[in-house]
Design brief:
Strand content: 15-25%
Oligomer: single chain
Radius of gyration: 23 Å
Structural class: alpha/beta
Shape: globular
Helix content: 25-40%
Largest sheet: 7 strands, mixed
Distance between the termini: 80 Å
Number of helices: 15
Strand order of the largest sheet: 14-17-18-13-12-20-21
Number of strands: 23
């Protein structure tokens, strides 16, 4: 173990974690005293006792958020002042980079290099960007007759409930709370029970940045308890959810059963990466396919888990792809050189293994991987896995696995590739690789996905909206379009004569 890795292990041993909720600007236990063990997927160690919030705690958090909204301690703050606080919030993330990255890795299992260089930076950039943007968003005057003045103004929707997933805990929290706070809302944030720790720390840093007490509340707990109570709450005006399609459907139902709160959902994906025989950048396509499916242990909703290759180049492509798999051997997430870490918990590990078993039993050809790794570590690791000869009716081709498993399907012409790519209930992302620009345009238009990449995959920028078609959800995160989720449009008519 080199000196830098020893440092991360030493810091992990010394890390002090407060698992209490944040309600009304105060760290508090659950009202009934309940808690749950937060277990690290890295090695099975217990990280903290975390408050197991339930309905009463949600009531308290929503009441805190409602009080803060109604007295306008934040909603009534000038956009330029909100900007300063959100930018300071972003700066505090960077100042506490090592602590946040270490907490994220221990809690979720991703490599420390990714947590430190990508997740912290991206979360801070999100907060800074929305802070910078909010005092540059103008209202409108409608082109009415000259004897009338019609003003169209954006107003905060009120109390926003944000429920975020376990795979990118810090970044997904930032994607929700940054535009919601920028537009003047109060927020109740419910992180996943599988990785709640950085969200709790974000709440503390927000207060340190100057966010008024009660504007951001963080309530850890189980989805069927705290999450359900938040989605059913009649005093929540908007629910923003990222997670599984199954739970997303429940969120929509809860809205209809209660106060018709806005329900925005970013859900699952089964994204296709289509490589045509006339691809101009074969090695780049190989790097994109392998790097994107095995990044974050495959625990990404937009991972290109279906690789569609035109038959004449399939063998050559797979030969090069298999040579790259060794670059993603699971390793100790606290080592700087590790590129693939642990799955989030044993439940997810067993889910991935069941899909691998299903792939074999349904007739797909296992090319590499397919087994657990680092069993003696006490953590939850799976080998990077590739299946060939996959049919689109197999479960590994149709269902979201959320693990390092790639399904390879061959096609004979681009029309077949488009039909196969679209033959899924999901529509989050897709990619087409070809040197023919006309073909690229036609395929991009035909693919039913929120984002279509051409000759690359998973390019990312906060200025670009993120979201999906079909059962991949509704609404968009990132970009100025996200402001639409957290604001109401008001028209004010004034008669001038």
């Amino acid at each position: 173990m080199n000196e830098s890795n020893r440092s991360w292990h030493e810091r992990a041993a010394q890390l002090k974690i407060d698992g209490r909720a944040l309600i009304g600007g105060k760290r508090v236990d659950a009202i009934d005293g309940a808690h749950f063990d937060c277990i690290s997927p890295v090695d099975g160690r217990k990280l903290a006792d975390v408050a197991r919030c339930a309905e009463k705690d949600i009531d308290a958090a929503v009441a805190s958020a409602r009080g803060a909204f109604e007295d306008r301690r934040w909603a009534g703050t000038a956009p330029a002042a909100r900007k300063r606080i959100l930018i300071r919030f972003a700066e505090l993330l960077l100042e506490n980079r090592d602590e946040l990255a270490l907490t994220e890795t221990l809690d979720m299992g991703k490599p420390i290099a990714a947590s430190r260089a990508t997740d912290v930076n991206a979360a801070a950039n999100t907060l800074r960007w929305y802070g910078e943007a909010i005092d540059k968003v103008y209202d409108e005057i409608a082109p009415t007759a000259e004897n009338s003045l019609a003003l169209i103004t954006r107003e905060p929707v009120g109390v926003v409930g944000a429920i975020v997933p376990w795979n990118y805990p810090m970044l997904m929290a930032a994607w929700k709370i940054a535009p919601a706070l920028a537009t003047g809302n109060s927020v109740v944030l419910k992180p996943s029970e599988k990785s709640p720790l950085t969200a709790l720390r974000l709440g503390e840093l927000a207060l340190a940045a100057g966010l008024p007490e009660g504007v951001l509340n963080v309530v850890p707990g189980y989805g069927h308890e705290a999450g359900q109570a938040l989605a059913l709450h009649n005093d929540v005006d908007c629910i923003a959810f990222t997670g599984s399609t199954r739970v997303g459907k429940q969120i929509m139902q809860y809205s209809g059963q209660t106060n018709l709160k806005r329900a925005w959902t970013e859900l699952g994906g089964k994204s296709p990466l289509i490589v045509c025989a006339d691809v101009a950048y074969l090695d780049r396509a190989v790097d994109a396919a392998i790097g994107s499916i095995f990044y974050n242990q495959g625990e990404s909703c937009n991972a290109p888990s279906r690789l569609l290759i035109e038959r004449p180049i399939k063998d050559m492509f797979l030969e090069r792809a298999l040579a790259r798999v060794a670059d993603y051997a699971p390793g100790d997430p606290l080592e700087a050189r590790t590129t693939m870490g642990a799955l989030v918990d044993d439940v997810q590990l067993q889910t991935v293994m069941r899909y691998i078993d299903a792939g074999v039993s349904e007739g797909a050809r296992l090319l590499v991987g397919g087994d657990r790794a680092r069993v003696d570590s006490g953590g939850f690791y799976v080998q990077p896995t590739i299946f060939d000869e996959v049919r689109n009716d197999m479960s590994i081709a149709r269902e979201e696995i959320f693990g390092p498993v790639l399904s390879v399907l061959a096609f004979d012409d681009v029309a077949e590739a488009v039909r196969t790519a679209n033959a899924t209930p999901y529509g989050l992302q897709a990619s087409i690789w070809t040197r023919d620009i006309s073909k690229a345009h036609k395929v991009a238009r035909a693919l039913r996905a929120g984002t279509v990449h051409v000759n690359q995959y998973d390019e990312d920028d906060i200025t670009v909206p993120f979201g999906g078609y079909k059962q991949s959800g509704n609404g968009r995160d990132k970009s100025l379009h996200a402001l639409d989720k957290y604001t109401e449009l008001k028209t004010t008519w004034i008669r001038l004569d």
